[in-house]
Design a protein that fits this description.
rod-shaped, mainly alpha, 88% helix, 6 helices, 0% strand
Length: 171
């Protein structure tokens, strides 16, 4: 009879550990999914911002009858840079745009230009919101990985992935 109770106790403990493992695994995957989603939103917002800056540059060229103010903006598309670097470069062009706007009263009075600038500000607001969303879930994932039961689950997952990767390489 004690053997039966011992066996039942082991099954209950194993089941509880299994449930804890699945719960923590799902929590890690949820955070990872949120991060991936926010990265795609950041990428989309940066592409929209890039396109709008090109549109604004074309508008300025037509309005002021001058060559482009954004010299290497079109070359950015061909470069292989991270979203962080792209955001930084686009911010530099946005600063140039602000200076152009201050230097040319003709542009300040133009309704279409004001509309383009307003759309660019909306894209920037969305980008800032998505960055905040990304930072929130990245911090949550890092905190979860550092917490007690989840750090064990994360280590197990990493070991399984390494094992599968080594197995695939051997084949």
């Amino acid at each position: 009879m004690t053997l039966l109770y011992s066996f039942l106790f082991i099954i209950i403990i194993a089941g509880a550990l299994g449930i804890l493992y699945v719960y923590n695994y799902n929590k890690l995957q949820h955070s990872k999914t949120k991060i991936d989603h926010s990265e795609s939103l950041i990428d989309e917002s940066l592409r929209n911002k890039y396109d709008f800056l090109l549109k604004i540059d074309t508008f300025i060229q037509n309005e002021l009858n001058k060559k482009t103010f954004f010299n290497d903006l079109e070359k950015i598309k061909d470069e292989n840079i991270s979203n962080f670097d792209l955001d930084r470069k686009l911010k530099e062009y946005e600063n140039i745009l602000d200076q152009i706007k201050l230097d040319n009263s003709k542009l300040q009075d133009n309704k279409e230009f004001k509309h383009l600038i307003n759309d660019l500000k909306n894209i920037d607001e969305k980008l800032q919101a998505v960055k905040s969303y990304y930072n929130k879930y990245t911090s949550e994932l890092n905190d979860t990985i550092r917490a007690f039961p989840s750090n064990i689950v994360a280590r197990i997952i990493i070991k399984i992935i390494k094992f599968k990767f080594q197995f695939i390489i051997r084949i």
